[in-house]
Amino acid sequence: MNLRTRSSLVIAALLVLVFGVGLLIQDQLIERSLKRPIARQQFQLVDSLASEIDGRFAVSFDALARIARNLSPAMLADPQRVQAYIADKHGALAIFDALIVVSPDLRVVADVPELAGRKGTDVSGLAHLQRVLATREMVVSEPFIGRVTRQPSVALSVPILHERGEVAAILSATLDLRGSNFLGLVGGSSGVDQGHFVLTTRDRIEIIGRDRMNPLQAAPAEGHHPVYDRALAGWEGTDEGVDEGGRPVLASFVALRSTGWVLGAVLPVAEAFAPIHESRRRAVGLLLAASIVVAALMWLAMRQLMRPLFDLRDNARRLRTDPSLAATLPVGEDEIGEVARDLYRLVDELARARRDSEIQAEELQSILDASPVAILRTRERRILSANPAYERMVGYSLDEIRGQSVERFYLSRGEFIETGEQIYSAIADGSVAKFEQRFVHRDGHVFWTNFHARMIDPECPEKGAVVIIEDISERRAAELARIESEERVRYQAEHDALTRLPNRVLFSDRLSQAILKAERERGRLAVAFVDLDRFKNINDSLGHDLGDRLLQGVAERIRAAVRASDTVCRPGGDEFMLLLPEISDPGDAARVADKVLAALGPPCVVDGHALSVTPSIGISLYPEDGEDVQTLVRNAEIAMYHSKDGGGNGCHYFRPEMDERVRERLTLETALRRALDQGELLLHYQPQFDVATRRLVGMEALVRWNDPQTGLVPPGRFIPVAEDSGLIIALGAWVLREACRQNRSWQDSGLPPLHVAVNISALQFRQAGFVDSVREVLAWSGLPSACLELEVTESVMMNAADHTIEIFDAIRAMGVKVSIDDFGTGYSSLSYLKRLPIDTLKIDQAFVRDLATDPDDAAIVGAIIGLAANLKLNVIAEGVETEAQLELLERGGCAQAQGYYFSRPLPAGEFEAFWRTLDRDTT
């Protein structure tokens, strides 16, 4: 049998097979496409009936609940009223067969229709009434046969509740399930010849079934109707199965939402799917006829189509012996002719490619021989071939190493095994293995290479692998040198040269990374800014070399005090910064700060000098005090300045108000320094009078600042800044010199000698050599010492009392007077008043202001005057503004006073004019 006949028969058979498969597929598709809607329609019918039944139950319960709502506790107390009430519910009797009212002890109170002997009957044996008492909810009883109707019935019961929630009575109604007003719409038949509906309880009691004459019969036993069993177990839907008689059926089941009963429709499969079987018979006949006709036509067509193929076969045999005939053989114009043309062209091209490949192989061998890169072929890590470059690289000729293992070129057998595992795990799937590898030359020196390997054919490992090796020893040495140089430069750029700690650049980078991590993990971190207190004094007195060694020791102590995960940085000078990542609460940062304070507590011994340094530490927290590097560092520095303002050797957390205060303080401090340098300060003088004679007896020098931009700056603003910054020392010295000079100038101009009172700050008072500075000012100005009075506050007198006594003894020995300013506002003590050598008490204006209206202030002022009199001290009241205040002071025995009643503080020129006017009036 030739190819033409075989092809025709095969194609015909294939067509019959294709049509047969198509027939089967179509049959299945038709069966599936028709079965689904039939099953869906049957399920929808059952689901619709179930919804209708649930709705009727809902209507029945609603009607029963409306009747129950009108049974009040007062009505329930009278059985006659209850009987009359339910007897009047004709509409309910159209729904229900009977109504009864049951007391909480489950005895019948009333019934409709009335049955003899039913009232007073004990119905506690009825389970559904017990459930109403237990649950206080509506209950449907299990179905039962009605005593009158002899039909399946149920009892619907609802509780009647007191206001306090207890059951006052139960209203129960009997419902005929097969009555026309309820399940009459569901008969035994499903609407087809052999089908029927079924309604059953979960415990397999049929309310409606195949046999309508015997209601409430047991359902088929478990296992006889599998689909029925699944429905009773909770399944809903439509499925095929067998009924209790063994018939194939299509069954649909739905559970009633109101009672949990199961409603179903059962239909024999033959009747349900009869249209499908008819469609199948027609389709089979049509497909079979079409298959026979098409097969015959294909057989005839193949006979004609196969002729050019046999011609191609003959020509292929001729080309096998003489490929040059490919250009002369005839070809047809059909598809087989195109195949023949392509075949002849391919044969010609293969012949030319063979000649070209032989030439290229010779050229490739020349390239391999000339390549500076080693190329070899291996199998099972044994050398099959290699180019001259590999021979030069390893120091062996190819004849010496052909067939040998490459293990000899590795430093050790362990490295040989490890590298082999890396190579074969990388190239097993056809990938290229790329890595750097060390090898040993024949003479023993080690060289580094770039190693590339690839399987020639991953599907055929026995063909081996191609390996390319490049010597990179010189390049690697240069790269290592470059990396070391870059690392050295980078280290120098990121570290402090003196302490080897990270500098500000590296600290900022680590802080940035820590912020990103904390943001990602919703964590916290802290930045601590550490500044050494009065370190400049050490540099200035002992030299910078010793100061640098001290900084190195401090750096080591700080680094030893913090955690391994913390970063210590020296941005410059005597400042250090700490990065404290991953803190759980702010207290962690404080504990680290305490460790730093403790570490720097003992003196540092440098070149025989025991040097004590204390730190001022400020802490900012992420995210509360900032969410970027600059803000966190700046706020930590602000908190540090707050610690330094408090005397140093302490730690403070950043608070927002510090920022504004520091800004204002820095601005004001800068301007105040400029004012001291550029002579913007001046003195105003407030006159002091003898209360009894109203004569001028002295003056108080008060410093003022005339800022060129803002005008007069209130002393309350710049004096605290001067005290905090230490400028108060220079400011106080200027005030003392200027007041003494001006007073001497007035005396030289002919004005009578009066004393001038100058305020002395606590910081100025505690300066070493303060007494000498007063003596020098008096000598420089020429002012008699009796014309100078120094005013100090009570806080100065209270601190270091013994030392204070020594200072004021020396001052009074010069003839200078001493007074206590703002007396009564501090920590006044009779003990220090008795011991201290003072001349005057100044009553604070806070007591004078309400002297005429506040009895307490009057009592305090009187007490101060009496105290001064007993201690033989002079008394001066400040802040006198009214005649009434002055008269009370005079009656109380106050010697002197000052205030706006006499004059406000005046510039020197105005005060001189005021003084001269008083002097003329007096004379």
The rounded Rg comes to 58 Å
* Major β-sheet strand ordering: 25-26-28-29-30-31-32-33
Low-confidence stretches: 188-193
Oligomer: single chain
How many strands? 34
Distance between the termini: 164 Å
Question: Could you tell me the mean pLDDT?
Answer: 84
Commentary on this structure:
This protein has 923 residues and is α+β, with helices and mostly antiparallel strands. The protein is 49% helix and 21% strand. The strands form 6 sheets. Strands 25-26-28-29-30-31-32-33 form an 8-stranded mixed barrel, surrounded by 5 helices. Strands 1, 2, 3, 4, 5 and 6 form a 6-stranded antiparallel beta sheet that branches. A 6-stranded antiparallel beta sheet has the order 9-8-7-12-11-10. A hairpin with a 5-residue loop joins strand 5 (152-161) and strand 6 (167-176). The radius of gyration is 58 Å and the shape is flat.
Structure described in brief:
The protein is an alpha+beta fold and 923 residues long.
Q: Could you name the key traits of this structure?
A:
eight-stranded mixed barrel, 31 helices, 49% helix, six-stranded antiparallel beta sheet, flat, 923 residues, alpha+beta, 34 strands
